[in-house]
Design brief:
Elements lengths: L4 H14 L4 E3 L6 H12 L7 E3 L4 H9 L16
Parallel strand pairs: 1-2
Length: about 80
């Protein structure tokens, strides 16, 4: 995720939005700033709440995956992250 953060985020985000979903993005901690700026730019063109971002490390990702409110998780990362 550190070598093409905007491209990887764009693929997943585009598919999610095209399917009519709201999306919560938790970028890799090594790419948080560029991902956050990209999300802010995209969010300006969409209704409020369609895209949200959450910064954090592995513990935050684990909490999202284990949450009963999470319906689908898409990620790019290592085998350990998966």
């Amino acid at each position: 995720p550190y070598n093409f953060p905007i491209l990887l985020l764009s693929w997943t985000l585009a598919a999610s939005l095209a399917a009519g979903n709201v999306t919560l993005v938790k970028p890799a901690e090594t790419t948080t700033l560029c991902s956050w700026l990209f999300l802010e730019m995209i969010a300006r063109a969409l209704p409020e709440g369609v895209i949200s971002g959450l910064a954090g490390g592995a513990g935050v990702g684990r909490a999202l995956v284990e949450s009963p409110r999470t319906h689908v998780v898409a990620f790019t990362g290592s085998v350990a992250a998966g």
